């Protein structure tokens, strides 16, 4: 029986060490594999010395010091990190309980006693190890790329179980003696872990849902921006066509005048003039997309009786994509127009002042517009509880953050100021 117990002791040691290594995200070169095999052999040799010196009970009590600590140190060196190798060793120790519990179940069913338990553990060691390495280890290794907080959260249960097992089963007999606090501790941990998991999963799912909704809205705005740019380009081309066909217009007007059809000539002139003015794109800068957007919003502001001053020095090529520029400017100017329309009381003209320029590879934008003084901020970002509003601000923030830029929102004395640097 001693020989079977010793063989089982060695097999579970190899099981745990190989599984710990498989849980670590290490690029296994020949040199690293040889170093790992050497570490396993050294640990097994140290275990043998301890076993023949003080016996099985003493070897179990010193197991963390002669096995887990040296193993963790070796994996830390190979992985060039400390946290995840430690969690890998704790997780592998937890997985060792799979073979132990299944063996206990078999021994209980067949009334085989401790000998059958050891034989069952030995028989299941290799199959369980291969299953864990093939199907579980890849998922465990992927957690090592998550943030440190999530890695620690992942390692809490293995760490608690590790301490519980040694304190209640190896160093004391609290579990075997049936002390209720010890017996009920792990069910308590499972319950707490489950509840925490449910709460965190719900919170993360809500955050993901909000992000998906925001992303859907952003995608819609990008598609709308592309359509707006295309429509404005089409209008500009239409205006160019009017100018190109001016010779034909003149011939027609000359014919009307010669035939005394002055009213018809005047109507035709007014029709052409209205079409050209409606589609005219004012040149504010060298950037075509910015000109199209500024022109469209300038016409909307004029129709609403809002003064819009634009000072732009934007080159043809800028560090922002055309669609992102359209979404950024469209949302910012839409919000400014909306604020001016809401505030309009007829006592004073509402104003929007736009300053935009490029300098040393950075794009700067400032928009100052009239607004109500009652604006709510959350973490220096304006918010609103009105349905359908607030998306524009989130879109602006998302695009600026995409390029690693900065933004500021401020309000006071009847003015709202947006500053962006990308």
Describe the overall structure.
By secondary structure, the chain is α+β, with helices and mostly antiparallel strands. It has 2 domains: 2-183, no CATH class; 218-244 and 281-421, Histidine kinase-like ATPase, C-terminal domain (Heat Shock Protein 90). 71% of the residues lie in helices and 11% in strands. The chain is built from 13 helices and 7 strands. The strands form 2 sheets. A 5-stranded mixed beta sheet has the order 1-2-3-7-6, with helices on one face. Strand 6 and strand 7 (415-421) form a beta hairpin. Helix 1 (2-23) crosses helix 2, helix 1 (2-23) runs parallel beside helix 5 (113-143) and helix 8 crosses helix 11. It is elongated.
Question: Summary?
Answer:
With 422 residues, this protein is of the alpha+beta class. It has 13 helices and seven strands. Helix 6 packs antiparallel against helix 8 and helix 9 packs antiparallel against helix 10.
